[in-house]
Amino acid sequence: MNAVFPGSFDPITSGHMDVLTRAAKIFDHVTVTVMHNARKQGRHLFTLDERLDILREATAHFGNVGVDSFGGLLVDYMARTPGSVIVRGLRAVSDYEYELQIAHLNRQIGNAETVFIMAATRWSFVSSSMVREIASYGGDVSEMVPRASAGALRRKHEDVYRERETQAAVLNAESR
């Protein structure tokens, strides 16, 4: 059986990777699908192509994981991939309430089944939006995201990281 792991992945986090790693052990093949919405254009930190590149790099070590993108309803994408289920990661009860509604709708309008995988407790507080905010101030997100995401965030906020490192060097020199 195959699975589709949809999301915006702006960027992919260690929590996403945890869910993906476990899904890859359960299913024959997992397609990580970047769902893009034209109405949300410009609201992502990374372009669709950048997110796809980050995902390809972050998932390159998997033998049974592919990367794709799709715009529109997830059930339409699922209709193109018969025999697949939707995989969704859950961090907290609040995620479950939202995801349960979406799962019921996907089953109702597209006969698509959803499998939930709980993210490890270690990643229950990590979200892409929090990672983006921390990185925008030059904070260290290397434990919260795969190397591909960390590098992309650093490049995106290069000026902030450079300024923060300069300030740290000055403070270090002054303390000697």
Automatic annotation (TrEMBL):
Keyword Transferase: yes
Gene Ontology cellular component list: cytoplasm
Subcellular localization: Cytoplasm
Top enzyme category: transferase
Signal peptide range: none
Cytidyltransferase-like domain span: 4-133
Reactions the enzyme catalyzes: (R)-4'-phosphopantetheine + ATP + H(+) = 3'-dephospho-CoA + diphosphate
Keyword Lipid biosynthesis in annotation: no
CDD domains: PPAT
Residues at the site labelled Transition state stabilizer: H16
Pathway it works in: Cofactor biosynthesis; coenzyme A biosynthesis; CoA from (R)-pantothenate: step 4/5
One Pfam family named in its UniProt record: CTP_transf_like
Record EC number: 2.7.7.3
SUPFAM superfamilies: Nucleotidylyl transferase
UniProt xrefs under InterPro entries: Cyt_trans-like, PPAT, Rossmann-like_a/b/a_fold
Residues that hold substrate according to the record: S8, K40, L74, R88
Binding site for ATP: S8, F9, H16, G89, L90, R91, E99, W123, S124, F125, V126, S127, S128, S129
Alphabetical keyword list: ATP-binding, Coenzyme A biosynthesis, Cytoplasm, Magnesium, Nucleotide-binding, Nucleotidyltransferase, Transferase
Major localization class: cytoplasm
GO molecular function: ATP binding; pantetheine-phosphate adenylyltransferase activity
Cofactors named for this entry: Mg(2+)
Alphabetical GO biological process terms: coenzyme A biosynthetic process
Function: Reversibly transfers an adenylyl group from ATP to 4'-phosphopantetheine, yielding dephospho-CoA (dPCoA) and pyrophosphate.
Quaternary organization: Homohexamer.
Protein name: Phosphopantetheine adenylyltransferase
Gene behind the chain: coaD
